[in-house]
Task: structure prediction
Amino acid sequence: MGNIIEVKNVSVKYITGDLRNIGIKEYFMKKLTRKYQVQSFIAVNNVSFTLEHGDMLGIIGTNGAGKSTLLKVITQIMQPSVGYVKVNGRIAALLELGSGFDGDLNLKENAYLRGAMLGYTREYMDKKYPEILAFSELQDFEQCPFKQLSNGMKSRIAFSIASMVEPEILILDEVLSVGDGAFREKSEKKMHEIIQNGKATILVSHSIAQVRRMCNKVLWLDHGRQIGFGETIPICNRYEVFLKTGVLPEKSPL
Result:
């Protein structure tokens, strides 16, 4: 069926400099006298992989590995400094808990707002909203302002919206780490349904057990570098050895 996602030689460079505490005149004077310095660092460094219909990719790595930055490139929130990403399908992404929601609007209003941001009509959301609410199990909180909901509740409604609007590509960044075990299990079953319908899912998780249980492919990042990409069990085994020893493998299969 062909690739649904292709990431080719992607790198992301951040340029930093202290512009906040100086004025325009001082900035140009520093530039002219070469006293102004900029710094840069590579958040993602030459990452390549492909996903086909039905794949579920787990992205693993310690904090600062570049996982969230890579997701922002895939969802086209951010442009890569080098390389390219090709995506064939509609993406529903949950990159940060509560992103895309208005704290002063209630749960129902936010569901429609999020649906509109994903490109769905009001008529479509009228049809889907009862299903979204039922899956989230938040019927008693429908009229509550979003800012009054707990993180677990926010995670529930966010996942419910993303999965119920039938995305072709579902991207989740640690959102299933919040909430009770029963809902996490329910969410995992829903993701399997999405995959069985020929879609693709990307999951960033610090839970290796969850990645082993759910994913058929794994991408391992460390300080932006691609350490490994391939089948779940061997990559996770090598990653767990790294967590115990702190020693990166000399070479991992790509």
